[in-house]
């Protein structure tokens, strides 16, 4: 009788282990599928990369004029971030590029409006942080931050 109870207990334990394993497997599958890969919209991706290139160029232009204001230990980092291929690479990983985090049309509109305002700002305006006063840029920033 005792060996039968141990055998039943052992069998129940292995079934529980199997159920736990399958539950974890299902959970991980759901989580990985749920991880929003975004909307593939080639037209938007091409357009947004063009806008991003212009924004990066504007910041490079402004940074070159005031390069002395950047601490020595951050110069290479900043320069790397502003370099066009790195700038676009980072954007390709963003919520806006993938149209994640809000209505796709709202994301596109916010980015286009923010882009337009950035290009109209002087370097001094950008250095003073006036971008933080532009509602479309604030909306865009929330999308990028996942808020």
UniProtKB/TrEMBL annotation:
PROSITE patterns per record: PROKAR_LIPOPROTEIN
NCBIfam families associated with the record: LA_2478_plus
Protein known as: Lipoprotein
Species assigned in the record: Leptospira bandrabouensis
């Amino acid at each position: 009788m005792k060996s039968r109870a141990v055998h039943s207990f052992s069998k129940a334990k292995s079934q529980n282990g199997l159920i736990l394993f399958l539950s974890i497997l299902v959970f991980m599958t759901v989580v990985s599928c749920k991880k929003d890969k975004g909307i593939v919209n080639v037209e938007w991706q091409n357009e947004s990369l063009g806008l991003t290139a212009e924004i990066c160029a504007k910041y490079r232009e402004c940074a070159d004029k005031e390069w002395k204001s950047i601490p020595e230990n951050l110069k290479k980092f900043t320069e790397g971030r502003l370099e066009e291929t790195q700038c676009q690479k980072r954007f390709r990983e963003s919520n806006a590029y993938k149209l994640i985090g809000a209505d796709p049309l709202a994301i596109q509109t916010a980015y286009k409006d923010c882009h337009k305002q950035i290009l109209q700002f002087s370097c001094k305006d950008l250095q003073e942080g006036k971008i933080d006063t532009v509602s479309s840029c604030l909306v865009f920033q929330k999308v990028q931050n996942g808020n």
